[in-house]
């Protein structure tokens, strides 16, 4: 399964490690640079190295904007005066979200879970399988949300319908939604 992962992280070494691990697993990776200085360092590094994965980076300005083709976002919790909780609802609307942070507070993890985080990886990052599992879980959560939104749209459209065929379509949409909820839990 191939999909795009956006990485929002301010440590260049970790960005390279995440990129290498995820690219080896077949994911497409986009780095969203934290500031202009970091973006310049990463671009210079890509131009002067034989980096087989490239470092095509975009500028992250603290707003929840990611490329439209991203299915998962891996984000540091603390980002130049911002934190992930500020943008989590907006990010979840467009992608699955994995938090990566050095903070080990149980309260922080609890807040992230309550806010709807799809995955969590602790720094220092040291487990490929842990990262891949968190990314795949976030991807499934994102796809489930997308499917749910599509089913709700089908149900809303079908509730105003009067013909037998339209009622059958509503029944099917409700059955799909019910199945989706069972699979999610």
Summarize the structure.
By secondary structure, the chain is α/β, with parallel strands linked by helices. It is 54% helix and 19% strand.
Describe this structure in words.
The chain is of the alpha/beta class. It folds into two domains: 4-139, Response regulator (Rossmann fold, 3-Layer(aba) Sandwich), CATH 3.40.50; 144-184. The chain has helices at 12-24, 36-48, 84-94, 106-115, 128-159, 164-184, and strands spanning 4-8, 28-33, 57-59, 70-76, 78-79, 82-83, 96-101, 119-122. The strands form two sheets. A six-stranded parallel β-sheet has the order 3-2-1-4-7-8, with helices on both faces. A two-stranded antiparallel ribbon has the order 5-6. Strand 1, helix 1 (12-24) and strand 2 form a beta-alpha-beta unit. Helix 5 (128-159) runs antiparallel to helix 6. It is elongated and about 60 Å long. It starts with a strand and ends with a helix.
């Amino acid at each position: 399964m191939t999909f795009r992962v956006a990485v929002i992280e301010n440590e260049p070494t970790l960005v390279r490690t995440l990129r290498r691990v995820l690219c080896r697993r077949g994911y497409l990776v986009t780095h969203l640079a934290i500031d202009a200085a970091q973006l310049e360092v990463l671009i210079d590094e890509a131009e002067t190295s034989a980096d087989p994965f490239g470092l095509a980076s975009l500028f992250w300005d603290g707003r929840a904007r990611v490329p439209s083709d991203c299915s998962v976002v891996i984000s540091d919790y603390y980002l130049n005066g911002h934190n992930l909780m500020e943008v989590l609802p907006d990010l979840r609307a467009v992608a699955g979200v994995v938090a990566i942070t050095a903070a080990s507070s149980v309260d922080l993890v609890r807040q992230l879970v309550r806010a709807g985080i799809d995955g969590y990886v602790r720094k220092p990052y040291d487990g490929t399988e842990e990262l891949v599992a968190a990314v795949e879980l976030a991807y499934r959560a994102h796809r489930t949300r997308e499917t749910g939104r599509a089913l709700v749209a089908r149900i809303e459209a079908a509730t105003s319908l009067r013909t037998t065929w339209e009622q059958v379509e509503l029944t099917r949409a409700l059955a799909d939604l019910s199945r989706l909820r069972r699979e999610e839990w």
